[in-house]
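Hi there,

I know you've been waiting on this one. I reran it after we fixed the sequence typo, so this is the corrected version. Both the input and the resulting structure follow.
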Amino acid sequence: MLKRLSIISLFLLPFFACSVAGFQGDINELEQQLSTLSSDEKITLLHQASDKMTAWPQADQGRYFFWLAFEYDQSNQMQKAIDYYNKAIDILGLLPPTEELVKSHSGRSYATYQLTNDPQQFCPDREQALSYAQQLDNADLLAQTLTQTAFCFDRMGNFSLGIQRLEKAMKLAQASQLTPNRQAMIFNATGLLYRRNGLHSRAYDNLHKAYDLWQEVDDRQDMFNMLHSLTGEAIELGQWSKTNQHVEQMFTMAEQSPQFADFEFFALYNAGRNALAQGDFQLAIEYLEQAIAKQALTQERYFIAASYITLGIAYVRAKQTGKAAQMAQHYLTHPEFSGQTEQHKLIANSIIALNNNDPQTAVISLYELYDLEKRLFSAKIDNQVVYSALDHAAQLAEFENLLLENKLSINQLRLNTEKDKQHISQLTTALFGLMSLVLVALTVFLFQSRRFFKHSAQTDYLTGIANRRFTMEAGEKALMRSIKRQRPLSLLIFDIDHFKRINDTYGHDVGDKVIKAAATRAKQVCNTQKYSTVGRIGGEEFLVILPNVDQQQARTLAQSLLHAIADQPVQLKQQAITFTVSIGVSTLTEASNSLPLLINQADSALYKAKHKGRNCVIVADTDTPL
């Protein structure tokens, strides 16, 4: 973001340049002088010291080029920053890893991101920075590089690895009591990772946590960046009161923070895409035209390009196809617009074809866009299953860490007790007895607490059956046993028909009673099978794991469950409510040998059951309702 020199700085700069001409000090003197200067003054001083620098040791030369690159970065001169980061890396890369080498790779990555927005170009530097940081004893730097690499996985698709790195970064932040700024970066990266994988509600929550942390330290630049991201997620969720609030906050911050010139561009850009999402096409056009007029305020070419294609879409929606085609053509052909998304390219091609009276090409582009979005949506669904497993693993790891801390506390207490015995041997037998009772009581308490927390971590709060995380874990274990022992295994997925209608008609209290009734009857029917697991995996959706049950047995069991629910109304004080469920069944085969695949097959069968009239059972690979 552009920084402005004050009138005083502009007045003093010529005098300052004369005073540092022919700098003759060493690197320590240079570092001391830099600490009191503005960014532009630092650049001037560093260039004045260039002749003296050539006689310094290699490590000091590398630091010098890193300082120069960093100041150009801060002045928003990204290409110059990259040039000097290259020089710093060329020198420092020949020496043992240092903090400046790590930061040079990180800085070059950020500058490259600003210019290209292409992860294939900026992510290799982040991986190299992490590799070097792991060799240094600096928790803050390691947490920073772990977080930076996690940003890459929101686009490269390796969701689980990104989450693992963020978990490591957060543990470092908590253990080392790192700054709110570092923790905010972790929440920011987590939010962007969730956003890319379609988990917009979780993305919004994490981005808001990052915003709150940066607000605590009044980091206005990062607060503004979070408002930009929060606006996008609120648009995805259709939460218009939040999008309007965030856009208003962005305009307020732009007005209050003139030192950040590109705030105004991004406020206009977000106001435009918010108006477009809410169907006010003329207002969207006005904001986006103003944003494009202010494009010189920012170096982020990706968002300048995005403003053109977004304006093109707004023109199309306003039935101004000629202007829309101009925006689309500019988006596709402008030499500085790199990193365009495949979706935007297809939209631009369809707009141009429409304006050229070529409906066939326009329709083909839209079909390709539909196919692409369908593939991306399918990948996001798979990632939600992955996330569930990761969420369970994270919660379990946190719980085990707490237990370990308790054990360490007990060991420390025992050690202190032994030391005290050497100094207070005059204590009576009664006192030792009392201490023993306290230790026994503490041990019993910890044992009971462990049992309580383990049960709580595995149980759904409403129904008392297994929760989603425990059900998935039980399913994975049962699947592995079945494959190893060559035994059958089946799954049932069922949900309550017209559940929204029940809630709307009778209220959420009755809806909760219907959910609990469905869970109770599922346990009564399915727990007749040894080692079965009945779990709630969504609002009104349930999953049943059935080891040693083949397809025919699963079909029979599902039919029994169907009748048990339909034939037993929920008894209220003044009336009885009858409800039904739809059930999908899948069975382990050589081709279908993973839990996510079996769940997807059962879920597809459930979907077919809904479309065949509900209150029926569909077995995967068949279309016949029972």
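Quick highlight: The first helix runs from residue 7 to 20.

Best,
R. S.
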